[in-house]
């Protein structure tokens, strides 16, 4: 390369911003403006040991065999870990000899063939088998519940029956199960006037000692909000009058303290005392930022790139010290999340956060704002490094990264209290554990597998306790004012901290950078300083007088917490290394004469002294710390235990593949572990992983996170210079101000002149070459654009005719189009087998591989990538459902609320039976004289039968008075099908055409329905001649939900249509499939002889261990009446005959081992089998809602274009031999007697995919089919003129509809 060209490139590259790396920090100096800037002549000299805290710690625990039975010495060459080792050095020092054969057949990253359902549960059981306890099925069946954190904190602890540990909405624990209510049940514990106690012991001292910056205050406040929140009761309160010696408030003032909301069902007896709900997750998971409920969490997300919502504004304008540019701030609460605010303040003018207390003061808001920016920064980095991740994966993985960072920052926060006399290593987070347990640092270290016994209580992870929530307040740290400081170091304003409460606009006006500069440039009082009067004697807070100390004392008492002596008696029984002496005399509490006199005046005995008072008076510090011993034990020790009880703890993540697995056979159990342990190509070790240098450095892991606070500020603001440890004031020697590396200043004039010179020089000597090169570059760019346009990663598409595409052919024979696509395009699409079909104006992409079905299933609760409502809108759902009903999903909500209730569905059993009996009586299939009657088809009869039963169940006895309803419903059914087909091809401006059809139908219904509705609103039991005959119908549910009679009329029609649509084909297929197998209908009828409605439960399935239940004999026979054998059933390769457990596949929750255990077993199995086989060619379907092309899991190189349709194929999915054995395409009535049907999983999508959008009426439909078929078989015999029809002959596939090829059937009435 020519020298001048090299110079130009060097200049250009140096102008790019450099990364803020720790090894490029500089000491600060001040420029003429007074601003701190980097002194590039004084780089920070970091001792080598500070770069290798982690590897040195690891070296020592391996050297001293302090990792239990892990035997880590054998893993390293020479039996030791190199000192001051980088991660690469650690990896290269592994001794791999003899380990290659450890996993000859390593587990795959996705479900193996033949195990398409329950893969998430199977994978979870494998990854967590070392826990040696049963896992909670509600958690492990959905990978998102154990791979990531849940919003509400559930499924962190995976033990069966205990998955709610630490979850939002749970009762707070008690450290030692102590309850001290006045009545032993719920009445607040008695004590002296709380304001008098506050005046006596908590007034601010005249002499104060300072040690930390207010950033510590903000961090403490954010942490406590992260793990606990007691929502106030709206009806219960404790009024505290002013004591006789009051000097701040008027004598007639009353401090009203609202009691914490009680946990429902508690406070009924001494054996069931009152408990209080924690309205936050108990884990250190940054829930104050993200929210502790799904509704809050979803509202705060952009759903793009894993980022959180922000508002870009220019801060710092109030005192004319604006920030350099518009920067991200928390959004205002226009998203509707709960916000705590004083009366008269519009919540829309406050910030929206994950915790209702987000706006309580600016210091905490500064921490909150930094974490918000840090999330979005990390999400951006992660998106760049992992382009395969979608928004949900980016968001959830970033959440885990953030909680890992926050836990490490919490370690730095813990260290802020350590004295120089601390004898233990301070940086690994365990010195307090070592001190309280009396063990040396080698005996107690973070090299522990999860769960760590010392972080457990009563066999469960430690969670926030009621005692900690009250004591861990540290109100003494509150300052009266703090400065707002400009970039030049000038104090713009001394801001009252109390006045910053609920002032979001003021926060922006002050500017985050100006606030932070002030927060780190001043100090806060230390422990035992008393509470600032602005918070202890506030004239008005949230609309009323306020004393933060009185608030704490009253809450201690009203929650029935123990007094100081009672708490520490229980604590001392644990035989800790650091006991707390019981105060037998008042003199044992304090040496201060004034405090001693007040104790004797206010309390009768030492045992009555409140817990918070005893902690306040404690004059003994916890060893080697600046924290009173009792306060630290109740608060900090509990907090640290909670961090180490967290399954997603960064410590466990970093040790997973040392202690549970080994690096050469590493299988992460959550997304954080997956990120920290990156795959490494190593011949003979397909599962080799080792630390990812990038993410370990991002977490500052080698330094145990000691630099993370400094980086949190400098990487998310324009503050480039900050003291090394921001929780302490700056000091030139012990805590110097350090600056990030400044960008190189480049002269554009130099670049311009150099570029001109280089260009002229090259042109003079290489004119022809330059022209050719330019032409080649242009051609290359054009070719690249062409290739990109052709190879966009989208699946190939069946084009069909112009405009119509394959639409006409699909309407005529949907199965033929499906098979054409699979055979011509899918077979050439690689692992995904994906292809598209142009159907009218829309393109449908068919997904057939289990991984891709699972992707849609995983998205079901969120609708981030796939949107069902938008798909239904394209089919004209707003037209036939009505805009209002469709927009709020009212029809589905009604059905889901009531027909997903087992008790309600069971109540419908007698209604279905009565309706079926009446129809068969009024419209017999054959004469009573026993002579056969030949029916050319049964479908039309079964359609009317279905319509009659549906009408009776939805409308009540009035349906029997209007036989014309059957024809109206059948006609409406056809009309809706027509509307759906028209809407898929008509442009929106022509939607008035199908609307006219729908309006006409609704008008016909309303003539019948409105008088019935109006009468039943007055008298719900009115109906036919005998009223409602004591039978349940759906009408009361509709009338309860809507007041508008016209809307109620439409909902009745819609509800019947939904039931009829699901019932018609399924009940007909069930009957036709049975009579297609000689003798089967009689076998089923015989099996039902002891069946009653009380024994029919379509929700329940037998346990996996149940085989051959009440109807076991029938399940042991094949469909031809011959004994089945294991080989022909295909149990060895995935057939559903026999136990699901025999395949190594866990059963889906609620589906157990099949239908066995009831007289209905064979019929229920036959119903499920017919439903499986009569599915449509395509469906379920969703609009691809992703904002950018969506990679498929089966093959990430194949992407789906946004706005198109992703559809599954019921026909294809349900005939996979890997799911249902070699006879998957054959009808076998007993298939699901002893085997799970897997409804809602990727193997059985009959009713959709499991989640909130699965068909809500599925259990009612199954109930109706069973009862209707039971009555048919009990009254008639059926003899088709042809039996043994195969799968290819039975069905006719149209677009979204399946009908049956039928043969004449002779029907005879049984005697």
Descriptive account of the structure:
Keywords: Glycoprotein, Secreted, Signal. Residues 1110-1149 are annotated as: Disordered. Residues 1-21 form the signal peptide. It is found in: Secreted. InterPro entries: Cyt_P450_sf (IPR036396), Haem_peroxidase_animal (IPR019791), Haem_peroxidase_sf (IPR010255), Haem_peroxidase_sf_animal (IPR037120). 40% of the residues lie in helices and 10% in strands. It is an alpha+beta fold. The model is unreliable at 1-21, 101-109, 112-116 and 1105-1151 (pLDDT under 50). It has 50 helices and 33 strands. Strand 12 and strand 13 form a beta hairpin. The protein has a 6-stranded mixed sheet. A 4-stranded antiparallel sheet has the order 2-1-20-19, covered by helices on one side. It is globular. Helix 38 (939-955) packs across helix 39 (964-983) and helix 42 packs across helix 46 (1161-1173). Among the domains are: 18-51 and 707-739, no CATH class; 170-643, Haem peroxidase domain superfamily, animal type (Myeloperoxidase, subunit C, Orthogonal Bundle); 889-931 and 950-1065, no CATH class.
């Amino acid at each position: 390369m020519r020298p001048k060209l090299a110079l130009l490139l060097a200049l250009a590259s140096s102008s790019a911003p450099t990364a803020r790396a720790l090894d490029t920090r500089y000491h600060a100096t001040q420029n003429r403006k007074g601003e701190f800037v980097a002194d590039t002549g004084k780089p920070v000299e970091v001792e080598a040991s500070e770069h290798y805290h982690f590897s040195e710690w690891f070296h020592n625990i391996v050297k001293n065999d302090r990792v239990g039975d892990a035997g880590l010495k054998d893993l390293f060459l020479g039996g030791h870990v190199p000192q001051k080792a980088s991660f690469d050095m650690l990896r290269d020092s592994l001794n791999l000899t003899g380990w290659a054969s450890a996993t000859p057949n390593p587990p795959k990253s996705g479900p193996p063939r033949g195990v398409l359902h329950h893969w998430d549960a199977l994978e979870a059981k494998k990854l967590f088998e070392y826990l040696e306890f049963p896992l909670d099925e509600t958690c492990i069946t959905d990978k998102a519940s154990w791979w990531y954190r849940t919003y509400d904190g559930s499924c962190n602890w995976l033990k069966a029956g205990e998955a709610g540990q630490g979850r939002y909405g749970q009762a707070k624990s008690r450290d030692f199960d102590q309850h001290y209510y006045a009545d032993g049940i719920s009445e607040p514990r008695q004590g002296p006037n709380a304001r008098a106690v506050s005046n006596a012991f908590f007034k601010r001292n005249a002499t104060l000692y300072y040690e930390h910056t207010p950033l510590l205050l903000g961090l403490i406040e954010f942490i406590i909000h992260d793990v606990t929140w007691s929502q106030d009761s709206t009806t219960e309160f404790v009024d505290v009058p002013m004591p006789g010696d009051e000097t701040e408030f008027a004598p007639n003032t009353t401090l009203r303290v609202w009691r914490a909301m009680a946990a429902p069902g508690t406070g009924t007896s001494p054996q069931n005392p009152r408990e209080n709900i924690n309205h936050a997750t108990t884990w250190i998971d940054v829930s104050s930022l993200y929210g502790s409920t799904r509704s809050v969490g979803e509202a705060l997300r952009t759903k793009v790139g894993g980022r959180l919502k922000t508002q870009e504004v220019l801060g710092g304008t109030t005192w004319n010290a604006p920030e350099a540019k518009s920067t991200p701030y928390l959004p205002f609460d226009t998203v509707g999340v709960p916000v705590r605010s004083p009366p008269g303040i519009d919540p829309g003018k406050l910030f929206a956060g994950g915790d209702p207390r987000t706006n309580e003061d600016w210091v905490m808001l500064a921490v909150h704002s930094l974490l918000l920016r840090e999330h979005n920064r990390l999400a951006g980095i992660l998106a760049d490094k992992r382009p395969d991740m979608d928004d949900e994966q980016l968001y959830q993985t970033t959440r885990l990264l953030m909680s890992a960072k926050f836990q490490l920052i919490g370690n730095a926060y813990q260290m802020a209290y350590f004295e120089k006399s601390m004898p233990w290593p301070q940086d690994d987070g365990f010195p307090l554990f070592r001190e309280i347990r009396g063990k040396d640092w080698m005996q107690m270290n973070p090299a522990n597998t999860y769960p760590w016994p010392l972080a457990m209580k009563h066999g469960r992870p430690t969670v926030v306790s009621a005692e900690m929530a009250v004591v861990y307040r540290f109100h003494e740290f509150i300052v009266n004012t703090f400065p707002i400081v400009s970039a030049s170091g000038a104090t713009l304003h001394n801001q009252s901290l109390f006045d910053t409460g609920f002032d979001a606009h003021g926060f922006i006006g002050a500017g985050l950078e100006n606030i932070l500069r002030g927060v780190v440039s001043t100090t806060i009082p230390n422990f035992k300083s008393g509470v600032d009067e602005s918070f202890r004697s506030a004239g008005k807070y949230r609309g009323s007088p306020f004393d933060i100390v009185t608030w704490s004392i009253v809450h201690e008492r009203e929650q029935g917490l123990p007094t100081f002596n009672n708490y520490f008696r229980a604590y001392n029984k644990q035989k800790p290394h650091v006991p707390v002496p019981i105060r037998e005399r008042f003199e044992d509490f304090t040496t201060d004469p004034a405090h001693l006199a007040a104790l004797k005046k206010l309390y009768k005995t030492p045992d009555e002294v409140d817990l918070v008072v005893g902690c306040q008076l404690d004059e003994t510090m916890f060893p080697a710390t600046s924290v009173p011993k009792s306060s630290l034990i109740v608060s900090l020790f509990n907090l640290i235990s909670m961090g180490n009880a967290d399954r997603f703890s960064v410590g466990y993540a970093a040790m997973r593949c040392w202690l549970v697995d080994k690096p050469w056979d590493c299988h992460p159990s959550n997304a954080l572990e997956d990120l920290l342990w990156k795959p490494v190509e190593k011949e003979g070790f397909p599962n080799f992983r080792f630390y990812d240098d990038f993410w370990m450095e991002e977490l500052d892991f080698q330094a145990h996170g000691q630099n993370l606070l400094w980086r949190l500020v400098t990487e998310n603001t324009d503050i480039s210079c900050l003291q090394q440890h921001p929780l302490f004031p700056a000091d030139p020697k012990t805590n110097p101000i350090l600056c990030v590396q400044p960008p190189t200043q480049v002269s554009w004039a130099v670049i311009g002149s150099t570029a001109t010179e280089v260009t002229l020089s090259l042109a003079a000597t290489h004119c022809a070459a330059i022209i050719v090169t330019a032409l080649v570059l242009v051609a290359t760019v054009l070719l690249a654009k062409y290739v990109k346009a052709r190879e966009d990663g989208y699946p190939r598409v069946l084009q069909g005719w112009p405009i119509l595409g394959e639409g006409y052919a699909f309407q005529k024979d949907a199965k033929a189009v499906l098979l054409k696509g699979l055979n011509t395009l899918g077979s050439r699409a690689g692992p995904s087998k994906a292809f598209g079909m142009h159907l009218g104006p829309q393109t449908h992409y068919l997904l057939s591989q289990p991984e891709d079905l699972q992707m849609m299933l995983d998205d079901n609760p969120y609708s981030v990538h796939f949107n069902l409502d938008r798909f239904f809108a394209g089919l004209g759902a707003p037209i036939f459902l009505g805009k209002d009903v469709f927009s709020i999903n009212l029809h589905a909500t009604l059905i889901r609320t009531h027909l997903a209730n087992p008790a309600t569905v069971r109540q419908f059993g007698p209604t279905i039976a009565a309706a079926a009996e009446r129809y068969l009586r009024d419209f017999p299939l054959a004469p009573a004289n026993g002579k056969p009657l030949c029916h050319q088809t049964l479908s039309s009869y079964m359609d009317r039968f279905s319509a009659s039963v549906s009408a009776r169940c939805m409308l009540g006895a009035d349906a029997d008075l209007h036989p014309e309803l059957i024809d109206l419903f059948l006609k409406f059914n056809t009309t809706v099908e027509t509307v759906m087909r028209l809407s898929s091809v008509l442009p929106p401006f022509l939607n008035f055409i199908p609307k006219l059809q729908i309006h006409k139908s609704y008008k016909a219904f309303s003539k019948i329905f409105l008088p019935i509705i109006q009468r039943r609103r007055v008298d719900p039991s009115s109906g036919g001649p005998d009223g409602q005959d004591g039978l349940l119908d759906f009408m009361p549910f509709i009338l309860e939900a809507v007041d508008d009679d016209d809307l109620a009329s439409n909902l009745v029609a819609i509800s019947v249509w939904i039931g009829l649509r699901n019932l018609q084909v399924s009940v007909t297929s069930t009957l036709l499939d049975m009579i297609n197998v000689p003798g089967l209908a009689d076998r089923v009828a015989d099996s039902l002889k002891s069946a009653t409605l009380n024994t029919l439960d379509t929700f329940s399935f037998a346990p996996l261990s149940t085989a051959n239940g009440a109807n076991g004999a029938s399940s042991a026979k094949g469909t031809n009446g011959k004994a089945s054998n294991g080989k022909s059933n295909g149990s060895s390769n995935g057939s559903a005959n026999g136990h699901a457990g025999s395949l190594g596949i866990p059963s889906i929750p609620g589906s157990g081992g099949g239908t066995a255990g009831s007289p209905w077993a064979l019929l229920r199995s036959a119903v499920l089998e017919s439903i499986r086989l009569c599915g449509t060619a395509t469906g379920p379907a969703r609009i691809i809602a992703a904002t950018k092309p969506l990679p498929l899991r089966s093959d990430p190189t194949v992407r789906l274009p946004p706005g198109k349709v992703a559809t599954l194929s019921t026909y294809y999915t349900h005939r996979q031999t890997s799911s249902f054995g070699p006879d998957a395409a054959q009808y076998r009535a007993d298939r699901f007697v002893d085997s799970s049907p897997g409804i809602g999983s990727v193997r059985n999508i009959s009713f959709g995919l499991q989640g909130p959008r699965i068909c809500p009426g599925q259990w009612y439909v199954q109930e109706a089919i069973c009862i209707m078929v039971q009555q048919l078989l009990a009254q008639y015999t059926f003899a088709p003129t042809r039996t043994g029809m195969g799968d290819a002959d039975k069905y006719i596939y149209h677009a979204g509809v399946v009908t049956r090829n039928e043969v004449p059937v002779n029907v005879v009435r049984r005697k």
